[in-house]
Amino acid sequence: MRFRQLLPLFGALFALYIIWGSTYFVIRIGVESWPPLMMASVRFLAAGILLLAFCYCADTNSPRYVRCSMPR
Predict the structure, then answer these.
(1) Percentage of residues in the chain with pLDDT exceeding 70?
(2) CA separation for the pair 31, 53 (Å, rounded)
(3) Taking a C-beta distance cutoff of 8 angstroms, is the pair 62, 55 a contact?
(4) Structure-derived torsion over alpha carbons of residues 34, 37, 40, 45, reported in degrees to the nearest 10
(5) Residue 62 pLDDT more than 60?
(6) Shortest CA distance to 23 belongs to which of 4, 52, 43, 2?
């Protein structure tokens, strides 16, 4: 493979390395200053915002829920 074809892969691996490595730092500081429920809430809120942004930017349609698929 050529280097230009591998460049997005290296970029994704580098982003994974930075994001994964920063979680330990954030958890270390968060444990000292925030209660556990607030830390979990912030994590899920951030993940939800990132997923919504990803779904908004993706070319596929987001899932549509209809009344017949909901439990009674």
Answers:
(1) 79
(2) 28
(3) yes
(4) -100
(5) no
(6) 43
Q: Locate 55 and state its tokens.
A: 């779904």
Domain encompassing residue 49? 3-69
Which residue carries 């730092």 as its tokens?
25
Nearby residues of 31 by Cβ (< 8 Å), 6 or more positions away: 39
Number of domains in the chain: 1
Rounded to an integer, what distance in angstroms lies between the CA atom of residue 43 and that of residue 34? 12
Q: Which two tokens stand for residue 39?
A: 């830390």
DSSP 8-state assignment for residue 63 = P
> Does the predicted model carry a pTM greater than 0.90?
no
Polymer length of the chain: 72
